[in-house]
């Protein structure tokens, strides 16, 4: 049973969504502010967190920033319908997905299931890169799907599930272009729609993380209007 943390200062949302998720077979823990959630996460991490952005004491952005210092667990943001800036900023900070308020609870359940499936796929044979071994090496890059481990020039890099799948898709075929639509298919469930901006935000954050291991990292090339390509160095 997957444990989902639901963090929102709206008690109606906490009550109704937690009931829906429990009916779907999830274990749910609710928090009405970011600080309370962080205190609990420091003791035990859930399998996934669903975070509202605007909350008292500690908002969703601050909580996400703290979480990304210690974990790559999947995170979904709940955003207001007019908060496009917050959506982009949240994705660049490391959120895996977002759902706009007011939202269909069925849609949220599908997004949660999609992220959990992707997380399971990363740690299964579905993402094996060769028949002999699940470890992929491309020049200075080393990826181990079974351990969700990435290193560049021997330096470990901590990636979210989405970032891992995008890097893996690009690095599997160096020199070949992946369109944004192709990357969406890799990183997201068929029932989940995301736009080009979402993929671009993930790629920007992926590059930023790789540059923590190497300031001169440039293996991911942007082909404007076409997509992205991994160039083996």
What does this molecule look like?
The protein is 40% helix and 22% strand. By secondary structure, it is an alpha/beta fold. It has a 5-stranded parallel sheet with strand order 2-1-3-4-5, sandwiched between helices. The longest helix has 18 residues, at 105-122. The termini are far apart. The model is unreliable at 127-133 (pLDDT under 50).
Annotate the secondary structure layout.
Layout: E1 3-7, H1 11-23, E2 27-31, H2 34-41, E3 48-52, H3 60-67, E4 75-80, H4 84-93, E5 97-101, H5 105-122, E6 136-138, E7 141-144, E8 149-152, E9 155-157, H6 161-171, E10 177-179, H7 180-187, H8 196-213, E11 220-223, E12 227-230
Parallel strand pairs: 1-2, 1-3, 3-4, 4-5
Antiparallel strand pairs: 6-7, 7-8, 8-9, 10-12, 11-12
């Amino acid at each position: 049973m997957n444990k989902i943390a639901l963090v929102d200062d709206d008690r109606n949302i906490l009550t109704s969504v937690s009931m829906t998720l429990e009916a779907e077979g999830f274990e749910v823990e609710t928090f009405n502010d970011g600080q309370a959630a962080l205190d609990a996460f420091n003791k035990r991490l859930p399998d996934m967190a669903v975070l509202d952005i605007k909350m008292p004491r500690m908002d969703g952005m601050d909580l996400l920033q703290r979480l990304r210092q210690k974990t790559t667990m999947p995170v979904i943001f709940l955003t207001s319908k007019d908060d496009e800036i917050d959506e982009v900023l949240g994705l660049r900070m490391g959120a895996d997905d977002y759902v706009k308020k007011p939202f269909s609870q069925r849609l949220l359940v599908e997004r949660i299931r999609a992220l959990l499936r992707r997380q399971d796929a990363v740690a299964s044979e579905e993402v094996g890169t060769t028949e002999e071994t699940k470890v992929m090496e491309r020049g200075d890059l080393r990826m181990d799907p079974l351990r969700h481990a990435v290193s560049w020039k021997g330096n470990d890099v901590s990636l979210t599930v989405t970032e891992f799948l995008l890097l893996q898709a690009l690095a599997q075929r160096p020199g070949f272009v992946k369109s944004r639509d192709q990357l969406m298919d890799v990183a997201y469930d068929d029932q989940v729609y995301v736009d080009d901006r979402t993929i671009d935000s993930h790629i920007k954050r992926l590059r930023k993380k790789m540059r923590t291991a190497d300031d001169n990292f440039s293996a991911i090339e942007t082909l404007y209007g076409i997509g992205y390509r991994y160039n083996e160095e």
